[in-house]
Design brief:
The chain is α/β, with parallel strands linked by helices. 39% of the residues lie in helices and 14% in strands. It has one domain: Spore Coat Polysaccharide Biosynthesis Protein SpsA, Chain A, CATH 3.90.550.10. α2 links the parallel β2 and β3.
Length: 248
Amino acid sequence: MADQKDIDLGSVLIIIPAYNEGYNIGQTICEIRQEIPKANICIVDDASEDKTVNISLEHNVDVLPLPTNLGYSSAIQTGLQYALQENYYYAVTFDADGQHDPRFISQVLSQLVHTVSDIVIGSRWKMRDSCDMSLARKIGILGLSKIVHLITGQKLTDTSSGFQAYSRLGMAALAGSQLPVRNPDADVVVSLARRGIIFSEVPVRMRPRTHGQGMNDGIVMMLRYGYHMFIGLLAQLIDPERKDNKCR
């Protein structure tokens, strides 16, 4: 594990988008603080209808409540905009549902701090047996990663991972992008990479969700997800204007 002494944790904000995660959010916050006692944590609540906000406030973290359910992408962008506004130098996006393992936060941050990366992705595919997932979903995620490599030249194995670390340039690039409502994925990686954003990955372990249901669980949602990814990547290929707006 990377040495936390190498990283100024006061300059890092951990952003947790949450929607109806009352069963999970308290444990997630506690686990992060067990691993990083001085962690700055911000919950972006996407108009939850359960006790997500109350439980978060009981754990003395910052809470940004969205006025209505805007979707995962808007929650991520809200958190990144807040990190920029509050002058955090780095940000980490982390799921509320318990699937992300906080023991790997130091690794993604260390990769960000010690390389030229703008965004570091915590990859499920760089570690054997890192997560339990259906064969169809594995094939889909790996297929998208291959397409991203062909288009951008950047070798990434897990463009769907929500476990990411950002420099200020990475934060600004994603916060200022037009994102799909559901979640930033391979199409967004392609868009940012073509604008000069540098990605890299580190291996992380993912865990099964203990309560609730994920955004893309079920056959219908997986097919819908695949369709939207296809349309998003096609848009990147046919729109030459997306190449010109460089981040650097």
